[in-house]
Amino acid sequence: MQTLTTKDILKKVRRIEIRTNRLVSDVLAGSYHSVFKGRGINFDEVREYISGDDVRTIDWNVTARTGAPHIKKFSEERELTIILMIDISASGNFGSQNTTKRELMAELGSILAFSAVKNNDKVGLLLFTDSVELYIPPAKGRTHILRVIREILYFKPKGTLTDFALPLDFISKVTRRRAIIFLLSDYAFSNPQEAVLQGLQPKLKICNKHHDLISIMVSDPREFELPDLGWITLEDTETGNMVEVNSGDPLVREQYKRLNLTRKDSLKKTLNSAGIDFLDLSTDHPYVPELLSFFGTRKRRYAR
């Protein structure tokens, strides 16, 4: 990634704050609140009965003591804990459009973080490669959120590969209270995907049993569509391995597309079988409509 000054970093973070804050305020805040509700009900206060109040909420002890009908008032236990669990392996630095996959993950993380803050929820961050690179415990406030955004964008990882096992174990140990965990990754495995997914599924199920685990896959169109450029060299950004392919051959392009679509379908089935919601986003499509649709689907499902 290019070297930036502190001033450049602050300007980029500020631009993301302005953009995402506007989106949250104008579009997403209500959807977030309606989908991710509190986990219980807290007693609020006792007040005098007003015509139209539910008689089932009358506090008979206070009513007898005061001689006037009073009711118990309750409020939803609104505060939630949101954990952004973000893959920062080397493959995230790729982008054939105006943004890289990591930049898109940063903006998505910002959207979710600011939505949480507006609803008085805590936000934590876990950045990982094939190990846990950085963990920021959940907290509130704008300063905290700006730090989260800055780390997502510019934290320099030691590793380049992807491994979900250690991060999933780590988050289960440090997060005792039930949390909503957004797992953002491009799911670019250097090892054979089937073997990785088979080993990963039990850990996903365990994490989702104790928390609400939501997977967001971020991809780039070049991962599914090769341009017709003749012989080209493709590099695995995580391992550095290279291979030459003839992109001028329609059969090669079709096989490339089919292989990667099959890999994505296999990933989706694995996540769904573990009871995990799956949202598929790309660097070349607007993500707000997809987020709204996703929130709407969850709201309808959990309202049943």
Please tell me about this protein's structure.
- The protein is α/β, with parallel strands linked by helices.
- It folds into 2 domains: 6-35 and 78-302, Rossmann fold; 41-77, no CATH class.
- It is 44% helix and 23% strand.
- It contains 8 helices and 10 strands.
- The protein has helices at residues 6-35, 60-66, 101-118, 142-154, 165-174, 193-210, 250-273, 288-302, and strands at residues 40-48, 70-77, 81-87, 122-128, 132-139, 180-185, 212-219, 231-235, 242-246, 277-282.
- It has a 6-stranded mixed sheet, sandwiched between helices. The chain has a two-stranded antiparallel sheet with strand order 1-2.
- A hairpin with a 3-residue loop joins strand 4 (122-128) and strand 5.
- Helix 1 (6-35) packs across helix 4 (142-154), helix 3 packs antiparallel against helix 4 and helix 5 (165-174) packs parallel to helix 6.
- The radius of gyration is 23 Å and the shape is elongated.
- The protein starts with 5 loop residues before the first helix and ends with a helix.
